[in-house]
Amino acid sequence: MAIKTLDALVVGAGVAGLYQLYQLRERGYSVQCVDAAPGIGGTWYWNCYPGARLDSPSYTYQYWFSDELLNEWEWSERFPAQPEIKRYLEFVANKFDLHKDIQLSTRIQSAQWQNDQQHWLITSETGEQWQVKYFISCVGMLSAPNTPNFANQELYQGRILHTARWPQEGIDLQGKRVGVVGVGATGIQVIQTLADQVGQLFVLQRTPQYAVKMRNTKLGPEDHAYWQSQYPTMRHDLHHTFGGFEWDVPEAGVALAMTKEQRMAILEDCWQDGSLKMWVGTYPEILADPELNEEASEFVREKIAARINDPILREKIVPRSYGFGTYRVPLETHYYDAFNRDNVHLVDVKSTPIEAFYEQGLIIGGAPLALDVIVFATGFDAGTGALSKMDVHGIDNQSLTELWHKDIRSTYGLQVHGFPNLFTVAGPLAPATAFCNMTTCLQQQVDWITQAIDFLRDQGKSSMEPSAELEESWVQHHDEVANMTLMMQTNSWYTGANIEGKPKRLLSYIGGVGTYRQLCDELVANKYSGFNIH
Length: 534
Prior knowledge:
Structural class: alpha/beta
Low-confidence stretches: none
Distance between the termini: 31 Å
CATH class of one domain: Alpha Beta
CATH architecture of one domain: 3-Layer(bba) Sandwich
Number of strands: 20
Shape: globular
Radius of gyration: 23 Å
Number of helices: 16
CATH topology of one domain: FAD/NAD(P)-binding domain
């Protein structure tokens, strides 16, 4: 099988990968995009589970590179469901003729940096090989499913599903006894959707969640006209807010000067917005000051408690062991109401852990629970998982998997020392890993990578990688900012705590989208000072 020679190979055909393919192709580079899935969309291909829905406002969750595209596409809802987002990405791919340079059902097995030739040799699971200057990972921050390894799974005679690998054709669960393991953002969407569809629903909860009531609305002609009038300024403004949304947070210190009543009014206003504004649009002290965080936590607890009729259930479902916002904050529509139904049952697997499978279901706290279907809504090996599975080796055959197993490091989430010309969109230690409206940060990172590749071509250079000193400087800054918040005090996937043995570090930069963009722009303005360029 002949080796294909290209300027760049883009791995991943989701939001970031499609845009990266477009940008490089427009500049005349020879580029191919590959994806393990049989269709494009990345996360929005795989996550077709019941209730899968966007939790960023649709008019912020889109591409900004084409006025024509912005004017042609009209979203149907404020928070559209998965099929609509998948249709949008297909629309983009067709409009810009991207499919001709996308190869699907192709999983990358290994990538080896050839230092003498200054290129990457990349091999797929079927033995296909590419020799490329630039290896660009667009595999996504949440794309390597985390599946619990309970004993005796081979005995179970029912069906096991993971939300990140849901059957594309769907599955009929009418009348079934279904167990959902996990109550994070995905689990909440599944549970609230299945509650009135299945016979009996068992919610296997370890850690209760602070979910915010979603205010979803249909969008009509007047809405489209309004938002299209806002697009010219939004294209710029989204990149300079804290979370990459159309709203921003007040300056630090403002909340401390307010009365409690004034802060309560801000919280109520953000709550009524029914969006992630309740998380990253109130005031920054919520994530940094223990007293103000507890004040906000109690505010949300009261909102949740008012929705649950049974006082015993209420105590189990209202979170108290950690502060609001230090876990991923989900949006919900009727999740809490589902527990008022007779066919929905809460199983506290923290006090009575899941022990093993048996033929008809799971052994929980020593007792059998018969289940026809078990749904794992147990999340991902976030930030590092997908790329770590590719067996990537850089200078002196250094293994990226082994490096990240010891210490999760990167330079601005864009490159890693010792791995020249490996660019990572949504890599660890960048806002895109968790603390950003995804399309805002993904496009910013793709633009930075494209600029860097242009710089190398214009300068007649072959490769670039961050120096050890630059990387250490970024890691220290990242940790300093993280340690100013309450995030590191909560064990969550944000810190890698959901994966056994994963080094503990906040996986995402929490200094703000606008600040991050400014720092990245400074790298460009300083002509990539601190990078080893050859």
